[in-house]
Amino acid sequence: MGTKLKKSKPFIIWLCFFIGINIAISAIMLTITSLNSTYYNFNEICTVLKLDIKDSLSFKNYIASTFDFLARYIADNDDMYSASGELLRFLDNEGENLIYYAINPKTGKVLTNSRTDYGITEGRTPSLPEGYDYYLYYNGEKFLAELEGESLDIYRNDSGYKTGNLRYYIDGDLSASITGIEHANSAEAISSEDIPDIKGCKILLMVRQNIIENPYAYSPLYYLRKNIETSRWIIILFIAVSLLGIALIVLSIAKRGEKREFDKKLIGISGKLWFDIKAIISLFMLMLLLKIPLNRYYSHDLAYFLFTRVFMVAVCFWWFYLMFKDLFANRRKFFSNNSINSLIKFYRSFENRKPFQKAMLLRLYALIAAETVLVFLAGLFFVGALSEKEGIFIFLTLIFVATGIYLIYRYIRRYSGLISDIGKVIDHIEAIKNGDMETKLILNSDADLHLAAENLNKIQEGVSKAAEERIKSERMKVELITNVSHDLKTPLTSIISYTDLLSKEEGLPEHVKDYIKILVQKSDRLKTLIQDIFDLSKATSGEMKIEKEKIDLGKLIRQTLADLDEQISQSGLLFKIDIPDEPVYIISDGKKIYRVFLNLICNALKYSLEGSRVYISLNVEDSKKKAIAVIKNIANYEMNFEEEEVLERFVRGDKSRTTEGSGLGLAIAQSFMQACGGNMSVKVDGDLFKVELEFNL
Amino acid sequence: MDKPCILVVDDDREIVKAISINLENEGYRVLKAYDGLEALDIVSSQRVQLILLDVMMPKLDGLSAVMKIRQDKNIPIIILSAKSEDTDKVLGLSIGADDYVTKPFNPMELMARVKSQLRRYMTLGDMNMTGKSNLLKSGGLCFDTETYTLTVDGEPVKLTPTETKIVELLLRNAGRVFSTEEIYERVWEGPAYGAENTVMVHVRRIREKIEINPKEPKYLKVVWGIGYKIEKI
């Protein structure tokens, strides 16, 4: 229950606001429509509120017309009103409410519904009988009036008695009035000749204090009273309702948070409407608003008044209220939600099911088709506009032209968006190529290339995952090899130590000494093998630390050769060295490059034909920004293997030989070269074995 | 004088035994331990002149043991390890070990290293070197500028006059790298035209004379592609 109330609270507050505003509109419309005679209306409202009939304008109007009747009748020498004696009858309809007495001393004519003359024939001021509190008396020269024992000065301009024809009588100088032409133009004015001369005539009107209903006839005075009473209630009601309205508005302002909540709901509904429909309705509303009459309102039909004025104004007000709220809440969406956009959206949902290339063509065709239709329609209406000269035709022509231009604009915008997206995709592919695995390509969810971008992101993810996995597995491999090599080294230490002890043993037979010699050799080979495998695996997995510095490649080769000086001179091979005297600087890790040359030169020493020449050269190719070192030798065996094969791990140049070395020399050289950023290639041409090393200058 | 006492520590008993045999053949007294804690016990309770220590051991590893021993003892320590990375060697030496031998080692080389360490510790360790200003030193390398003689761990080394000049140059500027041209110009006192090879070969010969293992030089080092230097130790 509580939650239900809480839920409906915004609605209730909003309802308060709604009712309050409607009341305010009604009140304003009422005020505007009755604005023409504010002063009188204000007095009227006061008298009505006081319930003082005899002070009200309607009463004074009634008295004025009654007086006019009597005056005309009594002053009429030719008895021109006698035929309309029934005119007097309506005075009799008043019954006890009205006592009249009129006498024309010139003709001796007397009009009255009373048996007494209240002393006026003697020239005295009339004395009111019991139950009566008002009289208006013309004593032949001037007017006298009394209400509730107090005399009234009806000559005052604001007395309210200068109404109808009475003002001519009151304004005294009748002759002036007769010749006066200031009233001639007035619609109400009776031509001055019509005003009878009542000089000398005595006319008395007396009204009962408590006006009662005449059961036998229609008493205008009674209904006047009734009307005033009703009016009073209406005014009280009006004020009460206005106060209620103000209270409701104040309440809704105080609780504007809740009000806004419901506003939002309404906006949610109105937001779904297309902009064009809103525009048309708004235009219609505006036209309606301009046609609402604001002149004074005369009809007594309240329903008609409410509909024509209040209802229409209220409808317009609420419509524009909603539109403004909508506009401020939805901003761009207010305009963008239109029929064209909806159509485009619908078209796009259809397009999305097509493959990209088809969709692009389809879009172009759809644009051309739509433009054709629009041009045709615009032309049609333009011709209509030329011949008919109707505003609506011109308007429609403009609408179609504008729609056509808008469609082209949308197409171009979409197209340029597509181009920029293609650019982004290309950039992204480039980034991926360069190894950026982090940044993702984000395109609008409705972009044509959205799916492509998503897929590209997935590929990127997959690649980065694979790379990560590879790095992980490489690291694990290195770890494994490190552990394995450690585990191999420990027993090998014992083997080497004990074979060494054995070899020192004296008094052993000769053949046992031979066995031991083999053991020593093999354990030594095992040692180098283990170390080489370890180095190789580290280099190939990228775990090897490279300490780059500026080194002279020529000097490095010479140093290596000097280091191997003894072996070279013992080998019986002739080394032909061609290294430039000036330094060849490269940025690399000297220790690793030394290892490369050491391995290659040792390789040449091992597998060169006896007495042949080994060529070592170093050339700088400035154009390629590269330094190239070449080592050539003639093999002492038939090289029946592929060039790539020789670089593979564990493949030895000479398959049949199993002497010292691990067979990993070339593989280590190559992986070290790669780790240092260089390149190594092997060429076999007959018996010529050639290794080329490329360094970046 | 007593036979020097050497402590051998390794969790592999066979290796300890093999080393012990070798050491005893050389005439040393040998104490054995099979983990770091045991080694610390022996070091604190007995007089030990040299320690051979494995790194990967149960209870207390070799590096921690070296640090503990170094807190109050100045005995030479040779680390024996299967870890052959440069970084491992640098770590071991910087912690306080005097030498680093990788497994599997050549027993002869190990003996040579033991001898050199002992010689330095027992004969030179007591000598008051600070008084003599005419000595150039780097680790066990000592060059007397008056007598023009070089000793390695107290053992005199015979050098040719050119070799002596090269050693003096490098030792005077220990830690600095000299290019072959510079060495030539300063030793031969003439322009170096294609004379690099001469310098390189000389350096190799010096290395063979002063290093226990010339392939892994301790003092005279090659800076590949740049030149040569003697480490400042």
Helix-strand layout with pairing:
The complex is a heterodimer of chains A (697) and B (233).
Chain A: H1 2-33, H2 38-50, H3 57-75, H4 85-92, E1 98-104, E2 109-112, E3 132-138, E4 143-147, E5 150-151, H5 166-170, H6 174-179, E6 202-208, H7 220-254, H8 256-270, H9 275-291, H10 302-330, H11 332-336, H12 339-351, H13 356-388, H14 391-433, H15 450-504, H16 510-541, E7 549-552, H17 553-563, H18 565-571, E8 574-578, E9 585-588, H19 590-607, E10 613-621, E11 626-634, H20 643-647, H21 665-675, E12 679-685, E13 688-696
Parallel strand pairs in A: 8-10
Antiparallel strand pairs in A: 1-2, 1-6, 3-4, 3-6, 4-5, 7-9, 10-11, 11-13, 12-13
Helix pairs in contact in A: 1-7, 1-8, 1-10, 2-7, 7-8, 8-10, 9-10, 13-14, 15-16, 16-21, 17-19, 19-21
Chain B: E1 5-9, H1 13-25, E2 29-33, H2 36-45, E3 50-54, H3 62-70, E4 77-81, H4 86-95, E5 99-102, H5 107-124, E6 135-138, E7 141-144, E8 149-152, E9 155-157, H6 161-172, H7 180-187, H8 196-210, E10 220-223, E11 227-230
Parallel strand pairs in B: 1-2, 1-3, 3-4, 4-5
Antiparallel strand pairs in B: 6-7, 7-8, 8-9, 10-11
Helix pairs in contact in B: 2-3, 6-8, 7-8
Task: Describe it.
The model of chain A is unreliable at 173-192 (pLDDT under 50). With 697 residues, chain A is α+β, with helices and mostly antiparallel strands. In chain A, a hairpin with a 4-residue loop joins strand 1 and strand 2. Chain A has helices at residues 2-33, 38-50, 57-75, 85-92, 166-170, 174-179, 220-254, 256-270, 275-291, 302-330, 332-336, 339-351, 356-388, 391-433, 450-504, 510-541, 553-563, 565-571, 590-607, 643-647, 665-675; strands at residues 98-104, 109-112, 132-138, 143-147, 150-151, 202-208, 549-552, 574-578, 585-588, 613-621, 626-634, 679-685, 688-696. Chain A has a 6-stranded antiparallel sheet, with helices on one face. Chain A is rod-shaped. Among the domains of chain A are: 51-218, no CATH class; 339-429; 546-696, Histidine kinase-like ATPase, C-terminal domain (Heat Shock Protein 90), CATH 3.30.565. The longest helix of chain A has 55 residues, at 450-504. The two termini of chain A are 86 Å apart. Chain B is of the alpha/beta class. Chain B has 2 domains: 5-124, Rossmann fold, CATH 3.40.50; 135-230, Arc Repressor Mutant, subunit A (Orthogonal Bundle), CATH 1.10.10.10. In chain B, 41% of the residues lie in helices and 20% in strands. In chain B, the strands form 3 sheets. Chain B has a 5-stranded parallel sheet, with helices on both faces. Chain B has a 4-stranded antiparallel sheet with strand order 6-7-8-9, with helices on one face. In chain B, strand 6 and strand 7 form a beta hairpin. The relative contact order of chain B is 0.09. The mean pLDDT of chain B is 84. Classes of the chains: A alpha+beta (697), B alpha/beta (233). The interface between A and B is large, with 38 and 34 residues.
